[in-house]
Amino acid sequence: MFKNYLLIALRNLLRNRTYTLINLLGLAIGISASLLMLMHIRQELSFENSFPKHKRISRASLHEWAKSSLPLAAELEKNFPTIEQTARLGQHRTFDVAMFEEKHIPVGKGYMADQEVIPMFDLEFVYGSKNDALTRPYTIVLTKSVAEKLFGEENPIGKSIQFGGMDDLEVTGVIENLPANTHLNFEYLISMPTQYDWLDEDSEESRGWMSVYTYVLFRDAQAMQEAEKEMQEFTYQFFKDRGATREELASEQAYYELHPISSIHLDGNREQEMGKNSDKVYVYIFSALALLIILIASVNFVNLFSTQVIKRSKEIGLRKVIGARRAHIFWQFLGEGLVVTLLAAALSLLLCMLLVPIYNDLAELSIQPLDLLRLDNLILLFVIVIVIVLMSSGAPSFAISGFSVMKAIKGNQLPSSWLMKSRKKLVVFQFAISIFIVISALVINGQMEYLQNKELGFDKEQLISVRLYGSLWDEAVNQREVFRNELNRIPGVVSIANTSGFLGNGLSVEGIRLVEEKDEGHEYSMRCIRADEGLIPTLELQLLQGRNFQPKADTSVVFIINENAADALNIEDPVGKMAESSTNGDKGEIIGVVKNFNYASLHYEVDPMFIEYRPTWVGTMLIKMEGSDPQQTVAQIEDKLNTMLPGTQMLYSFIDEEMQEMYLAENNMKKMLLMFSVLAIIIACLGLFGLTAYTVAQRSKEIGIRKVLGASLGSIVFLLSKDYLKLITLAFVVAVPVANYFLREWLQSFAYHIPMIWWMYTLPGVLVLIIALLAVSGQSLKAASANPVESLKDE
Question: What is the pLDDT of residues 714-757, one digit of tens each?
């Protein structure tokens, strides 16, 4: 019987090639898009799974901060007996270049690390002993990729390297590269005893200096949950000696929390994260998109499936007359749907392999085409096929099998059923989804354009940041006047500044107080930049009060603050007031006020900030350029540095590109929505094309009679198109309020965002309507142009 059903299914599919092709294309596109997106989602949800103990590991940090203080780990072990181990990763200094003999190799981030990091995360060693690799001062463990860059295939154990001209570090281990699906972002680990050797005793014991990431391994997951309930009391006891009260901690939400490491990637956008994390909101969005694309493709299937019923109604009636039971009819039509879906699934695998490189570029992933043939992905494809078959073939097959014999044999009208009555509703649903996706793509694209073009309060164009290290740092900082004179001779170089960090990234938050208010304890937490006199002219910051730094006059610490800092300090005329930094206790005069400028993500308002004159506390050189070819100027700067400092690597980036990195998730979503809006419209129009072809075939005699009676070409086209015009208009009415609600909620996540304007709704609606009418009008024009004799001669 199965063989008979299969033969009938194949004959019918070949007999109706147009409908089969439309179904295959629609389903294949839908399955391909959904499979790629589900693979993307699964990768997002798989972070930290490669670490065997990941379910028992948490990161301890304050509410808004990823980092914590050095003494926290020891205090946690004292207070929670269910803790098996703690481990810390601390980035005390930033190194970007590893030096071995004559080699200067750019590398990624590295951290100071406790020995306990190795067993906690089960780091796999290629060379060296995992038992004591990070126990001694001035030792380092490299990832395999960095070791190969420096030493090739040679075993590097016992060799010494330097970072930025600092102390020699002995290589004691080489570990396998970390997997892509982890928030841990390092290429080397320096032993924590090295950091303690560099620090003074006050820094070691400071409970307010957030300098390390503290990880905690619990006995089991339940112990981790129970410890979380006690963290508020623990925080109070931890900070009690600093005079903190429970009320202050509660009002500032300054409690330590335990964040399971598996949740950090999707729920870890705190201050000073190791890198840019994703957001669970976008996982929900991608999941919804995958489902919506499948639904659109399935709606096509349902509608086109039902259009074939009228042609086969007599077949159904005759089968019932000769004894076929309802179950036989059901399995026959379900089998036909399964055959189409399986063929579409096979075609989708080929499409996916072709689309994977494009999708990787859009979503910044590293999926390999052959990954599609892994068992888990094939199982995922099988699940998608089953869902489609049940949605698009199961219910219709059940309805078809219930047709009465008499109505089926008449064959001139669609038998009455919920399936046939739902066809128009399904078209509305399908196009409502398409319009919703297009509106979303348009609004998100508009917001991203706004973020790129908004006036930030400083000029980010043709501005590069150069990492200072080793001899380059020495020349740029200690010999900066001579050094800058050399660089300023290069055509295109306008100005140069040294600063403590990259603008646009998360800046340090430190305390500052007015000296006359010291006894009253008024300390304000603000963003902090340390820089020299070149910062304000290089960034073209606007001085509202006071003056810029002056090297000859400012022989001690002085401060420049922004507008919001002046408001926070509650002083109308801050210039001339004395302030004190809580970080080092140095006092200095406030000599100027600059206009607020957006140095960080536009998700947030500008924070209060002070700029401290510290020409030697810097690690970045900013170079402002002009001219039509900035890359040529950069090349000339590189040549000059190579002449002055042979072997030095110029590690640079454009500030505007750095700032774009802050909107990585949003940019990815924008690109994904643009792609999926196109796919949604294509799939929906394929179905509309098929429905129109069926309608034209059913009404061919009516069209012929109208033409004989004098109907014009335009009136016939309008007759055949007006029903679809009504359906798409209704879809627009349904889609607009839904899109309005969700997009307004999304825009509220930005402190600065575009307004929602009427044309953002109408333009996508009109666009989808025009494309849909083009799909309809082709068939309508063909029918309206046909010779009426041909349509009337057959009974």
Answer: 777 777 777 778 888 888 899 899 989 988 988 888 888 889 88
| Dihedral-angle region of residue 101 (phi above 0 means left; psi in -120 to 50 means alpha; beta otherwise) | left
- Chain Cα centroid distance, residue 116: 31
What DSSP assignment string belongs to 23-40? HHHHHHHHHHHHHHHHHH
Q: What radius of gyration do the chain's Cα atoms show?
A: 34
Sign of the CA dihedral running 306, 307, 308, 314: positive
What does DSSP assign to residue 392? I
**Rounded to an integer, what is the distance from CA 51 to the centroid of its chain?**
23
Q: Which residues fall within 8 angstroms of residue 202, CB to CB, at 6 or more apart?
A: none
CA distances from 223 to 80, 216, 333, 462, 660 (A): 9, 11, 54, 53, 41
Pick the closest to residue 475 from 646, 639, 652 (CA basis): 646
276-305 as b/e: b if 16+ CB within 10 A: ebbbeebbebbbebbebbbbbbbbbbbbbb
Kindly tell me if the per-residue pLDDT of 760 is higher than 90.
no
pLDDT band with cut points at 50, 70 and 90 for residue 414:
very low
**Tokens read off for 110:** 């590295």
Model confidence at 398, pLDDT cuts 50, 70, 90, reads: low
Q: How far apart are CA 462 and CA 257, in angstroms?
A: 42
Place of tokens 């020995």: 115
DSSP-derived 3-state class of residue 175: strand
Rounded Cα gap, residues 368 and 591, in angstroms = 57
pLDDT grade, residue 254 (50/70/90)? Answer: confident
Does residue 235 or residue 731 have the better pLDDT? 731
Smallest CA-to-CA distance from 34 within 374, 287, 313 is with: 287
Sign of CA dihedral 681, 344, 24, 334: negative
Res 635: pLDDT: 93
Query: Distance (Å, rounded) from C-alpha 521 to C-alpha 514?
Result: 10
Distance (Å, whole) CA 389 – CA 374: 23
Q: Give the Cα separation of 11 and 20 in Å (integer).
A: 11
- Taking residues 97-120, report their average pLDDT: 86
d(CA 623, CA 281): 37
Please measure the distance between the N-terminal and C-terminal CA atoms of the chain and give it in whole angstroms: 36
Query: What's the pLDDT tens digit per position in 111-130?
Result: 999 999 999 999 999 999 99
| CA 705 – CA 503 distance, rounded (Å) | 74
pTM metric for this prediction? 0.80
Contacts of residue 491, defined as CB under 8 A and 6 or more positions apart, other chains included, come to: 627, 633, 636
Closest by alpha carbon to 106, among 140, 150, 142?
A: 150
Alpha-carbon distance 761 to 442, whole Å?
9
CA–CA separation, 559 and 564 (whole Å) = 14
What's the Cα-to-Cα distance from 531 to each of 244, 497, 503, 538, rounded to whole Å? 32, 7, 12, 11
584: three-class secondary structure by DSSP? coil
Average predicted confidence (pLDDT) for the chain: 81
* Dist. CA 364–CA 44, nearest whole Å: 12
Query: With bands split at pLDDT 50, 70 and 90, how would you rate the model's confidence at 93?
Result: low
Contact 637, 487 (CB under 8 A): yes
pLDDT at 305: 66
The pair of three-digit structure tokens given for residue 525, joined into one six-digit string:
């937490």
Res 745: pLDDT? 87
pLDDT (tens digit per residue) in 581-612:
877 778 889 999 999 998 888 888 888 999 99
- φ/ψ of 7, rounded to 5, equals -65, -45
Hey, what's the torsion of the CAs at 153, 154, 159, 165, to 10 degrees?
-30
Contacts 24+ apart (CB under 8 A), 381-387: 381/31, 381/35, 381/345, 381/348, 381/349, 384/31, 384/34, 384/35, 384/38, 384/294, 384/345, 385/31, 385/341, 385/342, 385/345, 387/294
